[in-house]
Amino acid sequence: MAEKGEVLVEVKDLNKNFGVTVALHNVNMTIKRGEIRGLIGENGSGKSTVTSIIAGIQPATSGEMFYKGQPWKPKDSLEALHNGIGIIVQEMGTVPTISVAENIFIGDYDRFKVGPIISKRKMVEEAQKALENIGVTDINAARVTRNYNMEQRKLIEIAKTMAHDPEMFVVDETTTALSESGREILYRLMRKAADDNKAVVFISHDLEEIMDKCDTLTVLRDGDIIGSLEKEEYDPDLIKKMMIGRDVKGDYYRSDMEGYSDEVVLKAENLTTMQDLLCFDLELHKGEILGIGGLSECGMHTLGRALYGLEDIVTGSVTLTKSGTKVTSPEIAFNQRMGYVSKNRDLESLVLNGSIAVNIQSTGYKANRGLGFFISDKKERDYAQLQIDNLAIKCNDMFQPVSAMSGGNKQKVVFGKWLAADAEVLILDCPTRGVDIGVKASMYKLINDMKQAGKSIVLISEELPELCGMADRLLIMKDGKVTGEFLRPDGYDNTELIDCMI
Ligand SMILES: Nc1ncnc2c1ncn2[C@@H]1O[C@H](COP(=O)(O)OP(=O)(O)OP(=O)(O)O)[C@@H](O)[C@H]1O
Ligand SMILES: [Mg+2]
Question: Which candidate, 253, 213, 217, places its Cα nearest to that of 233?
Fold first, then answer.
């Protein structure tokens, strides 16, 4: 009988190198039954690397692992899952072109063989049950996965992992893709696993969340384990110090009360979209940081897309007031010096198999023209290098593919491409998602610098502290409409804001 406190997984002197990058350096870690273990550390500190090695996604360069006291060296993630170790990965972990059921039972289709034929019907039935078991009822297991949004795909992935009843599972920075109800599902599964003397490894940049949900916490920095804390030792300042290696002030938002110009640069009138928005009005001013907040399903993400010409508009319009241009497509938006950072970074903001340089340079084909129509190589290199330096993007060189970067560093590349383009109007949808506090601080500074330079910014966010810390003006949305407007000089009152959300 498995007992609480028994060692389930042991990692000994694990090293992982990617070329000259040392992603893990002599990492030692013991994961015990009955615990939810938190992992925290700055972007690129090695959290995804160590957990993906345990879960069989990639091999270590050197070192040993033990699982239930036996040497552990899974050849791939399916072998790991079949033996009881699952992972819900940081990026998209489902294949969009196959059905939900096929995703849930990927690698296991033989289970549904009737004679020589795989019974799709049986597989769909089982998959539907797997979804129901985790409390999801609005996904049809027979449908193709691409019909579902990011959150639903994450839930499919969770159902897939749980269908194997794992002894241990890793949750890598998943909660930022989930709404409140999705998070509750996940938290419940994590707690239940721990109560059943299984184990969970939980990765998050949200200090409050990780302190609340985890029984013990391990801090990584630059591929080293800095230390572990038990719940009673948790202290936010201490944890931050361990992460960054120096003292960090709690406050990194702007402190000024500077206003913005009266000039309206962008206007949405009576905007109704196929999804979510109903007769929505908005005015964005020159030099303004306009915050948009609400619960995840309130329509704010659709608003961001609609402002950049990415949604089907039923009635109303988005207009750049100076030129009178109607923004009806992303091409128009781009040509009019607008920029957009999507919440769904990997699918919408990056060319994943392109290099850092290619991604940043994607906004610069006009700026980097040399003589005639030729693009100047040197200008292009400088264009990318400037942002790599500015944003301290962690990489070996600008030719490294973006797919190999940590989540936070990817987000820096997205930011870099719009900074480089010197966009006049920037739509930021959850720009600090999955970004550690060090990078967050530098992004807030960048946003403020852009404001100072007279740029206009729409900041859509699920984090109230971030909105209150940065916005000149704050619109709270519910059911596709504005339910409250607040001004920075009046001070933001959390209770009032939340009242407008629910
Ligand atoms: N496939 C790869 N090729 C090259 N370098 C990689 C690869 N995967 C990770 N790295 C590098 O290894 C280091 C650790 O990355 P890892 O993804 O484990 O960080 P992380 O702690 O999960 O960060 P984040 O919080 O941003 O997700 C980083 O410097 C990253 O750029
Ligand atoms: Mg990661």
Answer: 217
pLDDT per residue as tens digits for the range 37-69: 999 988 888 999 999 999 999 999 999 999 999
47 touches ligand 1 (CB under 6 Å): yes
Q: Which of 297, 299, 273 is nearest to 481 (CA)?
A: 299
Nearest CA to ligand 1 atom 27: 407
Ligand nearest to the CA of 224: 1
* Type of residue found at 171: V
* CB neighbour class for 365 (10 Å; exposed up to 12, middle 13-18, buried from 19): exposed
Q: Which CATH class is domain 264-337+423-501?
A: alpha beta
CA pair distance 351, 151, nearest whole angstrom: 21
| Domain spans of the chain, in order of start | 7-244, 264-337+423-501
Q: 410 C-alpha to center of ligand 2: Å?
A: 10
pTM of the predicted model, to two decimals?
0.70
45 lines ligand 1 (CB under 6 A): yes
User: Cβ distance 336 to 422 under 8 Å?
Assistant: no
Q: Note the pLDDT tens digit of each residue in 309-348.
A: 999 899 999 999 999 999 999 899 988 999 998 887 777 7
Of 221 and 169, which is predicted with more confidence?
169
Q: Which two tokens stand for residue 334?
A: 């781009």
Task: Domain 7-244: give its CATH code.
Answer: 3.40.50.300
Atom index in ligand 1 nearest the CA of residue 50 equals 18
